[in-house]
Amino acid sequence: MPRPDLDPELRALLADMPLMTEIHPEMLAQLRQFAAAPLAPLLQGRAVDHHDLTIPTADGAHIPLSVFRPTGSTAPAPCVYWIHGGGMIMGNRFSQLDIPLEWLDEFGAVVVTVDHRLAPEATGTTLVDDCYQGLLWVAEHAEELGVDPSRVIVAGASAGGGLAAGTVLMARDRNGPAIAAQVLICPMLDHRNNTTSSTQFSGEPAVWTREMNEFGWRSVLGDRTDVPAYVSPALADDLSGLPTTYIDAGSAEVFRDEDVAYATAIWAAGGQAELHLWAGGFHGFDALYPRAALSTAARTTRTTWLARTLAQTPATG
User: Fold this and answer.
1) In the predicted model, what is the mean pLDDT of residues 291-311?
2) Pairing assessment for the beta strands 181-185 and 110-114 based on DSSP bridges
3) What is the pLDDT of residues 59-81, one digit of tens each?
4) Are strands 48-56 and 62-70 parallel, antiparallel or unpaired?
């Protein structure tokens, strides 16, 4: 099936990356080693105070959170609650963390990132429940974190973008916590895996293919047919009452069409969403190659939107 071309610079960079078409269960342990991001290189040269903690979940488990604050920060600050990507099957709370740390640098934001449990060991709503529990903790501890509770942004990339969308839906339906904005970066939103872009990026090696996506969703859902919209947000029949939303994706990736559809559904419900499709971008391009020209444009545009959004949300502290 014809597919959009890759940006020439990104194509050249991607040529050196080992790609695959499918994921099999026996590969998962090895993939998790590569997807677990180290923290030290991300903090090098930054004036950041960092501490880790664990919080209990409703089912008796404990999940880690990490908190990052600009050194010397005193005034109540915006908070970015970050949810990592990895197809819901891999990654850790430091994956793609360079993205929100740029917002710590730019806005003095406190960044809190959550290590939700992973599929297939955890299934159903467990992953999004973990994310929501972490958000509740942030809201309950806003004062000691130095966070302005009126300026909490929920953000995530790929699977983390989908979990961010589900967490925001939970917050709306459970009357809190209040969320100022959501940032959904190439989000994984639809378990049905049946869009045109999903079909286009099938059968050939890529960063993330239809076959890999199917494995991720099957790991979370198994054979269940009663899929909650909190897990697969594209199923939500009501997207009213959501905070202002930023969605972006590449034109050359599996999630392109479900991301466009989600923005469209927010608009149809009377909400506010800004949508960017980056021509020639593959899945996760700006996280993998942040210095490429297209990546720089995507990251700058996202940060500019966030600056404008924060300027329109007066601090309460």
Assistant:
1) 97
2) unpaired
3) 999 999 999 999 988 889 999 99
4) antiparallel
Nearest to 43 by CA among 64, 74, 78, 69: 69
Burial of 253 by CB count in 10 Å (0-12 exposed, 13-18 middle, 19+ buried)?
buried
- Residue type for position 195: T
Q: Is CATH 3.40.50.1820 the right assignment for the domain spanning 8-311?
A: yes
In the sheet that holds 273-278, the strands lie side by side as 48-56, 62-70, 110-114, 77-83, 147-157, 181-185, 244-250, 273-278
Q: What is the residue type of 165?
A: A
Alpha-carbon gap, residue 260 to 264, rounded angstroms: 6
CB of 251 within 8 A of CB of 2?
A: no
pTM over 0.90: yes
Cβ–Cβ under 8 Å, residues 167 and 93: no
Rounded to 5 degrees, what are φ and ψ at 262?
A: -70, -45
What are 81-111's pLDDT values in tens digits? 999 999 999 999 999 999 999 999 999 999 9
Question: For the chain, what are the domain ranges?
Answer: 8-311
